């Protein structure tokens, strides 16, 4: 018998014994799973276990129980329990794709009982169909055998119950009879589900887009019909011929968490036709052709053969820095650091020891001057000195106002914390010019070196975009760094931020808060800004809005508070690539000064990019509080697409040329709603690359 063969195969491969055979057994397993079985077995006190062998035995016991409970939950069509188990156990722990003694997998039971929600949950977790069902005939024969054997077992037990006198054995036989009657009904329902199923319909929609100059992206949706069995995989086919003869390639997709596929290794400039078909236990359904019917791999740069803007720039800058270092490496001032180790924090402190007075330490109070503070935080804790003060060092006690150019220079220095000693020595050489600017910047480098030496770490993090100024004439430059590991520092310790704020309130003056008071009041906001400024956009094509405003000493750019390292934006689509065909259309639209003729309206409305841009522009104008009718004179920047890596790209929407940058005192009737801020342009440029 086929069932017996399946059992023999399972025994030969040391497969799992069958799970509980009745609903009551399943309920007992559920209760156990809710209690002692739904814990990590490694959480037990290892001292109470005899040895590794016993722990492994205990582990296997828990995994067996969870696997058996999963089978029972699927058989009882208990969706909530299935989802709970998939959440608490990995597929490996559940043995999700190991057949039971009947040769069935959980997914087999779900699809043959036509339970689509459970089947989809299993598929999302990585479940497969049994490999033993190589054909429709083998599946049908196996189900018939299961039904026949279950019916035979029911008849045997029924005869024993009727003929035997009431006793303990008879009571046990009655329990077995009920269990086999329940299993007999299950197998009949599975057999009926298989017999009434039909092949799936074609996918309801297949969208084709150009992913790059050598690839296409296919996105598809499951069939609309609910009468056929659950779809368990899809097949993507592509060809240069609309008849798909010859076929150039195909791919089977059985991971159904995301219904899309990227066809790689195609020839740029060649048209490819694509179609997708669905599969269930009855076989492959008819294919669905893509929309549009074909696509040509390309990229907007092919329009004029333009090279990427940033190609080779990083290498050129590294080469330039190397040349500068070579020129300075023979200076007398560099002799002490020629053989300095790079990676040991204690060597940093040792090499800096001669730079400071033996009594150099963090400051407790501020006097009139310029200071540097470093905020290191981890969750809700912050690093403070042993006197419960935020680490602060003095830059210049005679500096009563901070020039914006000096501050912006310091923000650029923050990109090369490891080179501070070398930079300080270079500035020392140049001090003969007696430039006030050089002297101030030398003091900044000296303060940074002092902070690094006292903390025992070189990377001080990111400079906050705005110094803190108080009425006493103090200016505080703030750096922020999030610590994600249990890192230790010298001369400092961790304390909760709330505790530090409470203790500071008791000694500060609410009428005239110092710069340190202002820092503690706003430290959570600064930490939130720092975290948001490092967030990355999800892959896709975006529409950005460029708006500048100028002041006496700087130009500022409008950005969203939630992503201050990116321009105000909305997402156009998930595919970041602009094809050559789309770029040609954008160039054509940019060159049209007169209204588009009526006969061209139909062509525009058929262009997917045009429709996507219409939606994105309306959304963006609403976001920045500009009436749509006022945007009629706005224009798309048509010189290039801004690429940020391979997965994010931007089209820019610009106001009229006279309104791109608002001058001081110029009236701007449309101000963005809350949730925006303006950053100095140089700060934004630094943050954009983080």
UniProtKB/TrEMBL annotation:
Top-rank taxon, per record: Eukaryota
User: Which Gene3D superfamilies does the record associate with it?
Assistant: Ankyrin repeat-containing domain, Immunoglobulins
Any one Gene Ontology cellular component term annotated for this protein: spindle
Annotated spans, Disordered: 1-25
Organism name: Motacilla alba
Q: What is this protein called?
A: ANKF1 protein
Coiled-coil segments, which residues?
A: none
Mind listing the GO biological process terms from this record? establishment of mitotic spindle orientation; regulation of establishment of bipolar cell polarity
Give the InterPro entries listed for this entry: ANKFN1, Ankyrin_rpt-contain_sf, FN3_dom, FN3_sf, Ig-like_fold
Q: Which PANTHER family match?
A: ANKYRIN REPEAT AND FIBRONECTIN TYPE-III DOMAIN-CONTAINING PROTEIN 1-LIKE, WIDE AWAKE
Enumerate the spans annotated as Fibronectin type-III domain.
202-299
């Amino acid at each position: 018998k086929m069932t017996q063969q399946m059992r023999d195969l399972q025994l030969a491969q040391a497969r799992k014994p069958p799970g509980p055979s009745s609903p009551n057994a399943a309920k007992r397993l559920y209760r156990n799973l809710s209690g002692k079985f739904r814990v990590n077995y490694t959480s037990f006190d290892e001292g109470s276990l005899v040895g590794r062998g016993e722990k492994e035995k205990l582990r296997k016991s828990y995994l067996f129980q969870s696997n058996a409970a999963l089978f029972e939950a699927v058989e009882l069509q208990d969706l909530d329990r299935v989802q709970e188990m998939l959440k608490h156990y990995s597929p490996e722990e559940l043995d999700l794709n190991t057949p039971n003694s009947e040769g069935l997998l959980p997914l087999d039971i779900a699809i043959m009982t036509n339970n689509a929600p459970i089947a989809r949950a299993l598929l999302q977790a990585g479940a497969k169909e049994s490999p033993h069902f190589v054909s429709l005939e083998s599946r049908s024969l196996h189900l018939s055998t299961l039904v026949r054997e279950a019916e035979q077992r029911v008849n045997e037990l029924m005869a024993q119950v009727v003929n035997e006198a009431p006793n303990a054995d008879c009571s046990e036989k009655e329990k077995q009879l009920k269990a086999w009657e329940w299993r007999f009904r299950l197998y009949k329902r599975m057999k009926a589900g298989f017999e009434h199923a039909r092949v799936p319909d074609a996918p309801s929609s297949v969208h084709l887009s150009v992913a790059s100059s050598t690839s296409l992206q296919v996105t598809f949706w499951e069939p609309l019909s609910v009468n056929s069995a659950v779809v368990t995989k899809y097949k993507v086919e592509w060809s240069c011929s609309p008849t798909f003869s010859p076929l150039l390639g195909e791919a089977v997709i059985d991971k159904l968490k995301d219904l899309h596929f990227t066809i790689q290794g195609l020839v740029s400039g060649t048209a490819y036709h694509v179609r997708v078909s669905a599969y269930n236990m009855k076989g492959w359904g008819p294919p669905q052709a893509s929309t549009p019917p074909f696509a040509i791999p390309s990229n907007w740069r092919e329009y004029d053969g333009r090279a990427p803007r940033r190609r080779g720039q990083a290498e050129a800058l590294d080469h330039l820095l190397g040349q500068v270092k070579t020129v300075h490496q023979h200076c007398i001032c560099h002799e002490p650091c020629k053989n300095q180790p790079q990676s040991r924090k204690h060597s940093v402190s040792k090499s800096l020891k001669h730079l400071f007075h033996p009594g150099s330490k963090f400051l407790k109070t501020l006097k009139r001057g310029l200071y540097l503070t470093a905020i290191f935080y981890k969750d809700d804790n912050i690093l403070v000195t042993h006197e419960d003060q935020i680490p602060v060092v003095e830059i210049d006690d005679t500096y009563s106002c901070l020039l914006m150019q000096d501050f912006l220079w310091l923000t650029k220095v923050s990109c090369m914390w490891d080179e501070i000693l070398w930079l300080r020595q270079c500035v020392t050489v140049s001090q003969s010019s007696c430039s006030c600017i050089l002297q101030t910047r030398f003091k900044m480098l000296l303060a940074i070196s002092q902070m690094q030496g006292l903390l025992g770490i070189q990377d001080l993090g990111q400079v906050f975009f705005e110094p803190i100024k108080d009425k006493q004439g103090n200016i505080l430059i703030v750096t922020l760094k999030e610590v994600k590991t249990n890192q230790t520092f010298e001369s400092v310790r961790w304390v909760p931020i709330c505790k530090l704020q409470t203790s500071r309130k008791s000694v500060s003056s609410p009428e005239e808060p110092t710069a340190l008071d202002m820092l503690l009041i706003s430290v959570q906001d600064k930490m939130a800004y720092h975290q948001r400024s490092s967030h990355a956009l999800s892959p896709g094509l975006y529409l950005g809005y460029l708006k500048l405003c100028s002041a006496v000493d700087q130009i500022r750019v409008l950005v969203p508070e939630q992503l201050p390292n990116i321009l105000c934006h909305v997402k156009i689509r998930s595919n970041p690539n602009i094809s050559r065909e789309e770029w040609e259309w954008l160039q054509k639209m940019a060159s049209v000064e007169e209204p588009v003729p009526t006969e061209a309206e139909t062509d525009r409305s058929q262009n997917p990019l045009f429709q996507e841009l219409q939606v994105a522009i309306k959304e963006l104008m609403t976001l920045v509080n500009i009436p749509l009718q006022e945007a009629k004179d706005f224009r798309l920047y048509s010189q290039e697409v801004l690429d940020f890596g391979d997965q994010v790209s931007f089209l820019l929407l610009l106001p009229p040329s006279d309104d791109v940058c608002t001058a001081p005192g110029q009236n701007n009737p449309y101000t963005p709603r809350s949730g925006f801020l303006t950053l100095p342009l140089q700060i934004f440029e630094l943050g954009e690359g983080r």
